[in-house]
Design brief:
Blueprint lengths: L9 E4 L6 E3 L6 E2 L9 E8 L3 E6 L2 E6 L3 E3 L5 H12 L1
Antiparallel strand pairs: 1-4, 1-7, 2-3, 2-6, 4-5, 5-6
InterPro entries: CRR42-like
Pfam family, one: CRR42-like
Protein name: DUF3148 domain-containing protein
Amino acid sequence: MSKEFAIGSKVRVVALPPYVKTADPMPMLRPPDVINLGEEGIVLDRRPGGYWGIRFTRGAFLLDSQYIESTDIPSESDQGDNNSNQEL
């Protein structure tokens, strides 16, 4: 059973696949070093076959849910940012 992620939520790469597929209309295979272990991205959409379209700094790629985890738990730096936004 694959994990579910909300569109627009942040996710983190927990393992690198043998290759990554671009999320372009005509997908291409890329070496796994276009993303880094621990890199965070934003979920763009859900694709058939358990894949998620995710925007990273070097582009949008399709990853299986086994390679990513949610980062919904805010870190201390995120909490500081949220507090400063609430004061405005």
